[in-house]
Amino acid sequence: MPLILLVVVFYFLLIRPQRKRQQEQAQMQNNVTPGTRVMTTTGLFATVIAVEDDDVVLEIAPGVETRWVKASIGRVLVPVEEETVDNGVGEPETVTDVQPADAPEIRGDEGSTDKKS
């Protein structure tokens, strides 16, 4: 009886959650569309240009396109906010921050406290 209980516990605590994560990852990779910002499993940030059977074409810089397998997409990134910054040349530049779609929302310095002694 204890052996059967141990197998059941392992199934619900280890095997089932891992299988669920794998299914979610595969679904995310299959639902990628052109124009989506992604991060590969190796940490490369790019924009999806085209989606083919098991391949995606990623633009890593303007005019630089590479072909990857869908399984190499680690995360889909979503824009958080746009802000205008001074680039030192006299023209303001718009910067868009991105974060993983599954990451909690992060907002500035709301939680920080400055203590001066």
UniProtKB/TrEMBL annotation:
The keyword Transmembrane helix applies. InterPro entries: Preprotein_translocase_YajC (IPR003849). Pfam families: YajC (PF02699). Residues 83-117 are annotated as: Disordered. The keyword Transmembrane applies. It is a single-pass membrane protein. It is found in: Cell membrane. Keywords: Cell membrane, Membrane, Protein transport, Translocation, Transmembrane, Transmembrane helix, Transport. Its main location: membrane. Residues 104-117 have a biased composition (Basic and acidic residues). Belongs to the YajC family. NCBIfam families: yajC. This is Preprotein translocase subunit YajC. It comes from Sphaerisporangium dianthi. The gene is yajC.
